[in-house]
Structures are given as structure tokens and as C-alpha cells.
Design brief:
The protein is α+β, with helices and mostly antiparallel strands and about 475 residues long. The chain has helices at about 35-45, 45-50, 70-80, 90, 95-100, 125-130, 150-165, 230-245, 260-270, 280-285, 290-300, 355-360, 365-380, 390-415, 425-430, 455-465, 470-475, and strands spanning about 10-15, 20, 30, 55, 145-150, 170-180, 180-185, 195, 200, 205-210, 210-215, 250-255, 270-275, 305-315, 325-335, 335, 340-345, 435-440, 445-450. It is elongated and about 80 Å long. The relative contact order is 0.12.
């Protein structure tokens, strides 16, 4: 039997002779207590502080209650904790624990200027919306008091990558390029229908080095996949080589990026590349003999059969400026031929044989797609709901910074644990979403974590990994 319900009381199925009722009357209880680990990561790395430094604050300091760093922290940490829209912050701003994560020195919000804001330490949806829609640093619209410096933000991602690799310089770096679609459902600036993705969308470009994000650039969907890539690589490679002069850099991408402009730039600047090449009749004819052998082997064994070879090739219409080395895979599987090709400027030597280049150098690029899916699905990088491309680009950057925090959490605190390779969503559910009672006093913000939390040992392990050794010895 159900209990009678009032607007503030919820009745559920009885438990034997007991009534089961619920209400939002628990007081200062937070569901995001695990976010304290993200706060430790942000403090140790300085990521949020450095990202906030990429904004110009033109506001009158006498009337400012939320610094740019606090606003940026609020938006990025909100994404980390699963709050994808700024409207979510209308409730979230009253959570003293979330205010603590964002660096508010008065987490209870008792010292707010206006009476209507008392008890709400963080900014509301309108203030965050103005941050998202801020213009560029050179914009003349003085009504936009906060301006994002796009060039500085782009350099921030590479600087953060370099800061994570202190000590002995790496001998080799593999830089992956890929694109995806941000589907649009309104009348956003730059709206265009893309036939491959079968929707109106943007076409953001992602550049990674392993699991490290180097660039996330929003683009119109009517552009070529390789558009703007050379400019991005000039900046990224220039910053890397300014730090590590002798490092070998390999650019890796699918056939959508196989353009003479990109290949020639790599050759002129001493950058290696392993890039997919779209097949055509001339290429297939070149490996027909090997396909016949693979077909015969497949017929005998019933298993996939493949052969690798390399040769030099130049497009017939001279769209390539020179002859280049092509790697071919003559594969037959499930009764069908599956020829694949890629182009590279790696030297012909045993360590760069055709099979090793294809299997060890090219195939691992598929891992990058998992990183993009993390951002798209779990950190809301696909949400391009603002009317202007500049605002949607900023949204993409907020998501990218959230990814950096998760990546640092995995690298610093979860190495060797069951969550070392977990997705952002799994980490959020198992490690960040912890119920806790929050008590704010003059001297302390006391957080009483749920005694029934099932991953206490994992949380303690992550906490200890984030603490400086000297503090652990003192405790």
C-alpha cells in the first residue's frame, strides 16, 4: 500500500509493517564527494589555473564576485561530474562541497552581496552562459566583459602536454589526427549537411599524442577533412621541438588526411608520416598477384589470409608532387578481398618492413577513436547548442580540459588499480559519485562520506597516490 504523498514527501512500497517515505530534507548532503580527488589533481597540475589565464577579464573588480578561474572551474568540474548544461548549476550552486571544489573561500555563500544569492556560493546559469558566449580577445564588443584568447588556449593544450613529460626527453612521438561529427539540431552558425554522417553537423578536428590531447578544433562540415591540419601541426611540432630538438615525430591518420600539402609539409620539416591511402583500380592491379595467393590460401585454410608488400607510387594526374612509398595489405577474409593501402616516408629497412609498419605503426591508431568517444559521450563534447561557432568552440575546449583532468587522475592516482584503463563514465560512477554529509564551520569544511560506499579501498588508494610523500609521513 502506498503512503499518502505531499509535494515534499514521496511514498514508496511498504517494507513489511514499515512505511517507506522520502523527502529532499536532508540538508547539506552532496552526491559528488569524490570530486575532492579532482580538486587535488587540479591543484597539483595547475590545469584550471592555466586555462583560466587564457581569458581576459575586463570587468570592474569592485563588482566581481566570481573570478574567471572560479567560473572556469565551475564549468569544467561540472562536466567532469556529469552536469552537461549550465541550467544544472541553478541547483548545484547551493552545494557547499561543489563550491569547495571550485575554490570558493565562502562555500556556504553567506557573504554574497545580494540577498537573493545568499546560501548559493557559485555562479548561476546566466553568469555561466555569458562565460560560454564570450567573444575573442580582439573583439570590439565591450559588453562582453570576459574574452577568450583562442591562440593562447590552443597553446595551452600543448604546454600541458609538455609539462606532463618532464625529465628525460622522449625519443619518438606519434601524433594522431582524426575527425568526428557534432550533430546540430538548430540554426547554429556554420550549419551544413554532411553526406557521410547523414546529418547537419560540425566537423571537429582532434589531435592526440597517445592519450594526451593536443588540439580540439571546431570546423564547418563543408570543409575537407585535412583543412587546417598543416597550421595545427606547425604550431604543435614547433612547440615540441622548441623543447625537444631531436625527438622523432610521426604523424598518423586515415585516408581522409592523405593530401599532398600535408605530405609535402611533413617531408620538408623532417616529420615522418603513416597515413591511409584510398584504394583505386591502379593500386589494386598492382597487388593482384598477391591477392590471388591470399585467396588460394584462404580457400585451403578457411582462415583470413594476408600478405604485405611495399612499392613506390605516384598519382596519375600528378596530384602528388613526387613519388612516394606505399604499403599494401593483400587480404582475403570471409571469402572477400580486402585490399588496404597506406603511404609513408619511413625508410625501407628491417624495422620498417611493410608488415611491421602496417600492424605496429598504423593499426594502433584505432585507440584514438576511444579517446574521442570518451569526450563525445561522457564529457559532452558533442553538445554544440550555442548559436555561434565561437561559443561552441569554447564549449569544446571546456570538454577538452575536463578530459585532461580525468587523464591526469588516471595517470597519477589510478595507475595499477582496476580503474587504470577505465572510461571517464566508469570513473565518475565508481569514484566521484559518493554521497556525503557536508558541515561548514569557520575553520573547516567537514565531509562525512557514506559508510556504505563500496569502493572505499579504491578511494583511499587514489587519495594516497595524490598526496605528497611528506604529508603522508606526517599523518
Amino acid at each position: 500500500m502506498h503512503t499518502d504523498c505531499t509535494p515534499d514527501l514521496f511514498g514508496f512500497q511498504d517494507l513489511g509493517s514499515r512505511k517507506v517515505v522520502a523527502a529532499f530534507d536532508g540538508g547539506l548532503i552532496s552526491s559528488d564527494a569524490g570530486g575532492l580527488l579532482l580538486r587535488e589533481v587540479a591543484a597539483a597540475t595547475g590545469l584550471l589555473r592555466q586555462f583560466a589565464a587564457c581569458f581576459h577579464d575586463r570587468r570592474d573588480a569592485r563588482f566581481v564576485e566570481h573570478s574567471v578561474e572560479e567560473l572556469v572551474s565551475q564549468r569544467v568540474l561540472g562536466l567532469c561530474l556529469g552536469y552537461e548544461d549550465v541550467v544544472d548549476h541553478e541547483r548545484l550552486r547551493a552545494d557547499p562541497l561543489f563550491a569547495t571544489l571550485c575554490g570558493k573561500v565562502d562555500p556556504s555563500g553567506d557573504s554574497r552581496t545580494h540577498g537573493r544569492d545568499r546560501g548559493k556560493a557559485c555562479a548561476g546559469k546566466s553568469t555561466l552562459s555569458r562565460l560560454e558566449t564570450c567573444r575573442g580577445a580582439g573583439d570590439s564588443d565591450r559588453t562582453r566583459r570576459i574574452a577568450a584568447d583562442g591562440e593562447r588556449i590552443r597553446r595551452f593544450f600543448v604546454s600541458a602536454f609538455l609539462a606532463r613529460h618532464r625529465g628525460r626527453p622522449p625519443k619518438r612521438l606519434v601524433v594522431d589526427l582524426d575527425v568526428t561529427a557534432n550533430e546540430l539540431h538548430g540554426e547554429q552558425e556554420g550549419l551544413f549537411f554532411h553526406g557521410h554522417y547523414d546529418c547537419y553537423c560540425y566537423l571537429p578536428l582532434y589531435i592526440y599524442c597517445g592519450k594526451d590531447l593536443l588540439a580540439a578544433t571546431l570546423r564547418r562540415a563543408d570543409c575537407d577533412a585535412a583543412e587546417g591540419v598543416v597550421a595545427e601541426l606547425e604550431r604543435i611540432v614547433g612547440m615540441i621541438r622548441a623543447r625537444w630538438k631531436s625527438v622523432q615525430i610521426v604523424v598518423r591518420a586515415d585516408s581522409g588526411f592523405c593530401r599532398d600539402k600535408l605530405l609535402s609539409w611533413c617531408e620538408e620539416h623532417g616529420v615522418h608520416y603513416v597515413i591511409g591511402l584510398q584504394r583505386n583500380t591502379r593500386l589494386v592491379e598492382r597487388i593482384e598477384k598477391h591477392l590471388r595467393r591470399s585467396r588460394a590460401e584462404h580457400a585451403r585454410s578457411g582462415q583470413p589470409a594476408r600478405r604485405y608488400l611495399s612499392f613506390y607510387y605516384r598519382t596519375r594526374r600528378r596530384s602528388w608532387s613526387k613519388t612516394r612509398r606505399v604499403i599494401a595489405k593483400a587480404e582475403v577474409t570471409e571469402g572477400k578481398a580486402n585490399p588496404r593501402f597506406l603511404v609513408t616516408n619511413l625508410a625501407r629497412e628491417p624495422r620498417y618492413s611493410a608488415q611491421r609498419i602496417y600492424e605496429e605503426q598504423y593499426c594502433p591508431r584505432g585507440e584514438m577513436e576511444n579517446r574521442i568517444k570518451e569526450q563525445q559521450l561522457y564529457l559532452f563534447a558533442e553538445r554544440s547548442s550555442c548559436m555561434t561557432m565561437a561559443a561552441n568552440q569554447l564549449r569544446l575546449w571546456f570538454s577538452a580540459v575536463a578530459y585532461l583532468l580525468f587523464h591526469e587522475l588516471r595517470r597519477r592516482a589510478l595507475r595499477g588499480t582496476e580503474l587504470a584503463e577505465a572510461t571517464c563514465q566508469t570513473i565518475r560512477v565508481k569514484l566521484l559519485k559518493i554521497g556525503a554529509l557536508v558541515r561548514v564551520s569557520v575553520r573547516r569544511v567537514a565531509v562525512s562520506l557514506s559508510a556504505g560506499y563500496p569502493y572505499q579501498a579504491l578511494f583511499l588508494s587514489a587519495y594516497r597516490a595524490l598526496q605528497p610523500p611528506i604529508l603522508l609521513r606526517c599523518r
